[in-house]
């Protein structure tokens, strides 16, 4: 299974995510469009994977007038917040279970993201949850 997560780095909030059983780029574009229904970033950072260098992805961001930022090749630390989320998801949830269906994976990923966003305080957010911090940010901006 392949997961893409759109994370607001300021609040650590998972704005949107999609899970797919294939590497077709449509699941990344779906996640992006879902995220844009909630907010429009000024800059979007990603790694240099084929999904994020595809003409469809670049065209979508340019159409939305979003600046594109990509990590340096082989520089996972450029995207530390996102990489940390994926590491935590794997070590706190996924590696401890044996899955037999995509539906089971989806259920656990959804539960983890809900917990991460809504009930898990973050030290970097002065012990607020990402959802609380994100909502507060949106009230200030909106």
Describe this structure in words.
The protein has 142 residues and is an alpha+beta fold. It has a single domain (2-141), classed as 2-Layer Sandwich (Nucleotidyltransferase, domain 5), CATH 3.30.420. The protein is built from 6 helices and 4 strands, in the order ββαβααβααα. It has helices spanning 26-38, 50-53, 55-63, 80-92, 102-118, 130-141; strands spanning 2-8, 13-20, 43-46, 67-70. A two-stranded antiparallel ribbon has the order 1-2. Strands 3-4 form a two-stranded parallel sheet. Strand 1 (2-8) and strand 2 (13-20) form a beta hairpin. The relative contact order is 0.16. The mean pLDDT is 87.
CATH architecture: 2-Layer Sandwich
Strand order of the largest sheet: 1-2
What distance separates the N and C termini? 36 Å
Percent range of helical residues: 40-55%
Class by SSE composition: alpha+beta
Q: Which value, in Å, is the CA radius of gyration?
A: 15 Å
Query: Residue ranges: pLDDT <50 for 5 or more in a row?
Result: none
CATH class: Alpha Beta
The CATH superfamily is identified as Ribonuclease H-like superfamily/Ribonuclease H
Most strands sheet: 2 strands, antiparallel
The ordered string of helix (H) and strand (E) elements is: EEHEHHEHHH
Using the coordinates shown, work out and report the CATH topology: Nucleotidyltransferase, domain 5
Total tally of structural domains: 1
Instruction: Report the mean per-residue pLDDT as an integer.
Output: 87
Number of helices: 6
Number of strands: 4
Shape: globular
How much strand content do the residues show? Answer: 15-25%
Pfam families: rve, rve_2
InterPro entries: Integrase_cat-core, RNaseH-like_sf, RNaseH_sf, Transposase_IS3/IS150/IS904
GO molecular function: nucleic acid binding
Organism: Paenibacillus tianmuensis
